[in-house]
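Second opinion, please. Please look over this fold, written as tokens:

===
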Amino acid sequence: MFVRFDDATFEEAIWSMDLTGGDRHEITTAGNVGPQVSPDGRKLSFVRDTDAGKSLWTANVDGSGLLQLMPPAFDTATKQDWAPDGTRIVFSDNANKLDQPANIATIRPDGTGLRYLTDFRSADLRAYAGGYSPDGNWIVFRLEDHGSFGLYRIRPDGGAIHPILRLSSFKPRFIDWGPRPTP
């Protein structure tokens, strides 16, 4: 899965191709970004970017079975990730609403069970989800605090926030974990 930008129309859409570069075809229509394939390879999550805001969606990997999980009003950040067991998707809200805080939440792939992991109430505090650890025990995220940036981890239930990189001018983006270490 990848996002293809069309220079002629200035639109982005999610595409697929095989490992030889062949069998290229559009999976979703224009305005869809940030594809993440589910751990079992059968579904994908992505963000649909419209004038009304950014919404979170899932679909089968062939583009069928579209399901909106979060409406445009939530202004979902582009980076989201599947739990290793495929039961939840982590994302952030208020991506571009700079007068509101951004918080991290998870939701089931069927659109039920919305659960916030952070509860920042100041627009100066913004948490942007990165991804789940390979064992599913942590979620890495960027914390923005009054113009400083830090890299943190949090448990999937919202507990035990720990700094990885304390607040500074260093601004990590599109954060993800590496592969599970091999014994």
Q: What stands out?
A: The first strand starts at residue 2 and ends at 6. The radius of gyration is 16 Å.
